[in-house]
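A common beginner's mistake is to predict each chain separately and then try to dock the pieces by hand. The better habit, illustrated here, is to supply every component at once so that their relative placement is modeled jointly.
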Amino acid sequence: MTGEPRRKRVFRIPFSRRGLRDDVDSELRFHIEGRVEELMSKGLSREQAEREARERFGDVQQIESEVERIDRTTQRRQSFLERATALIGDARYALRGMMRRPLSTTIVVATLALAIGANTAIFTLVDGVLMHPLPTPGLDRLVVIQEDLLGINLHDFQLSPGETYDLIQRKDLFSAITGLAGGSANLTGQGEPQRLGLSRTLGDFFGVFAVHPYLGRVYRPDDSAPGAPHVVVATYAFWQKVLGGDAHAVGRTLALDDTRYELIGVLPADFQYPRSAQLYTPFTLDPVWLTAQRRNSEFITVVARPRDRFSPEQLTSALAVEVSRWARLHGEQYVPTHFDLHTQPFVSYLSGDLRPVLLTLMGAVALVLLIACANVGSLQLVLAAKRAREIAVRAALGAGRATIVRWLLVESLVLAFAGGLLGIAIGAAILRLVSRLNESQYRLLADAHLDSRVLFFSALVALSAAVLFGVVPALRASRVDLNDALKDSSRATSITLSRHRFLQGSVVVQVALTLVLLLASALTVRSLARVLEIDPGFRPESVMTMRINLPRSRYRDNAASAAFYNALDDRLKAIPGFASTGLVAFLPFSGGGDSSPFDLPGRPPLPNEPARHANTQVIEGDYFRAMGIPLLRGRTFGPADAAESENESVIVDEYLAKSFFPNEDPIGKAIIHNNRATIVGVVANVPQEYLGQELHSTIYHYMPRNPWYGGASAVIRSTLPNATVAAMARAAVRDVDPQLPVFDVKSMPERVSASLTPRRLAMFVLLGFAALSLALSVLGIYGIISYSTAQRTREIGIRVALGADPGDVTRLILRSAMTLAGIGVVAGALFFLGVGSVLASVLYGIGPRDPLTIAGGVLLLAAVAFVASYIPARRAARVDPLVAMRAE
Amino acid sequence: MSPPDLDLLRGTLDLLILKTLSWGPMHGLAVLHWIEDVTGQRLQIEEGALYPALHRLEQRGWLDAEWGYTERNRKAKFYRLTAAGRRQLTAELSKWSRYTEAVGLVLAREGSR
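With all components supplied together, the output reads:
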């Protein structure tokens, strides 16, 4: 029995569970039966032999199950190994094939890379701005609490310190809540005096954002008790930039607005909110803030983390109950018709006007990806048809359909992988371009960066692209008729009807989606053009501006502030080369502002008149001339207006004049806005924040009489170079007060341009996408038409031989191509009409269904499709019938 | 790979199987017969324990298993030593001889009594 046995291969490790059990079972049975026979040959009875054999063997059941378990593990390991090996083999094969077709491989990889790169870049922005702008865990739970002043039609206002204080007491609603007053302070004693962002916080700021200090400690709510020593916490950026990253900085004293603060901690590098903050200090809640009349000084941004058990609706109704309590305590201003508290997710509050832009771009970039997939998919299908012979050979050698599909899919994956890698590089390059957007209010964009989430997203995009462009062609191509394909390579490439359908569908999809992108970008271009046509109401060219702030510690009263402003105005005026100069409390296009109700004594409300509420402006010097704001009626301020008197002089804007004095001359009319006043002049409307802003009444007060605000901007009109103007103005400020920092030095055109950033971003990105998709679909249409005419060479040859005019042939091909393009255009236009409304929020002065734009886009795309199919059609018509028929 | 000195019995059984199969492919019962013949029945092996050992050695890639037919035309599972198995056998043999040598030295020492 031990000699070389006669063996033949029956099977190896069986794959099914059942087969495996049978296998083990027969092996053990063979053993026991062998033993039984042996023992019987020694003279034992069958019964005795069986008992003896089993005894020697041991517990058959247990051994059987143990062996089975071992085999199952073996099987799992082997099948994994086998599959991995097969996959690597397929990938190698695919790579070799791709190397043999460098041109088509380059086109496919480049197309995918551009689409994946665009997706990576846009997703990075969406992720960084809309999804994870801060490292705070559970950021999506945070809400901003805002108030609507319904009586004067103002929405989404901040809260007053008193209101914030009341909400902080509601521990039952919020697990953490904080109020923030943005602000700034002059830092002295650290080199040049400089202006810093100083945020004053109420409640538990660091708890709401779950920030733990990088160095030292953060302050606790009790640090804000009246009389407690002044403490500040610094951002990482401030610590690095101003304190040089000194490891022993904690404990140092900083002089802010001439008050001494102890630095108690430094925050980690990845936390920066608000954008402008460099230092944080507790807001000392002076009892005066809790009095009824100060409850409408709204300047606190309230951010809270609601307790988990509250749904947004429950929270809103709980806030309504709180407001009704305020109405009982503080009276009329809190009745429901006048006042309303609501919450907004913190993340969407933070992204502000970038949100609709980014969501639009996200949609657009998905379309780019779809176009790229349609494009690559049809190219793959055409290639697969050309490789029908290769596929047939494999099939003849025994590869099943599943094997061929897997082989083609692996090829798609390899292509998508290459495209994905290159795409991430392209995405990173696009982000570098975006990060040049340095305007402070869009730092959020510049800060977005590639991280693991983004890379995961890109991988997902590449994978889904591979499936999208790979699966259908692979399934189609695997249906090869072996006989046909092997007999004759040229016949094998004839397109089947289903394959033809796929190519036609691909043309329609590409044309349709390209039209959508084309229309979207055209609308943003026209919208930006409209915005730029807006008369800003002033002339920003050759105007330099800069800001200064007066620390309250040295400018304790209005007289001191007024004296400073007067002195500065005098010095600026005296500088030769400055054509006109002025000061203004709230420089347009720079953020900030104040507003309050006004009254027109003795004038009952007109029907449909807007709210009697106006932006407050305070100016000095030749502000209107320096800014180029036309004076429409009356006069500007003069020295006489500075005198303390019963009646102040104010200047109003055209909007107020037209809204409240429609058929009269407002000059000389009485108005109450903070003080009793008489209107002495009317100037043109100026938007305070951005071009195309909804108009609001504005009332200008005279600064020498009302130096209400601790800060102002100098406005200088001059033909001198900006740097010269800035240096001369700095010197003038230094002459008046050497300790005052001059900051935010910018020309007015820069400020106006910065306010257009979201529009520009939307326009440039959409234009890029439209151009990319137009190029892709031109290539796609050209390729598909060339291919399908090449398929019809024989038919065309016959037609020409039978006397068809080359023009007829061209027309024949063009007709079928343009039918497809036509379907695509109609589908695209309908699709756009359906989804275009999402664009409404990023457009100005033009509707998303603007007929002219749609007509233009349709015509342009039709023309491009015509050219792309005309060239192959012409070429086909010039075919020599003899050559064409012999080609078969 | 568990060192043979930790699990003497199993390690020994593995070694015996590898060594036996180094003579040529065999099925389980034949392996047992071979060991019995060579040792003159002096080594009692619990027969059932042979199979988990065989399958474990197969899992490690030291044995290859294949169904075939015996001389009497019965279907049986044959095991064959692979190249890796042969290397393993060499390694185990040298370990074994070092081990027995060491044990032998201890046991050969005459007591002082």
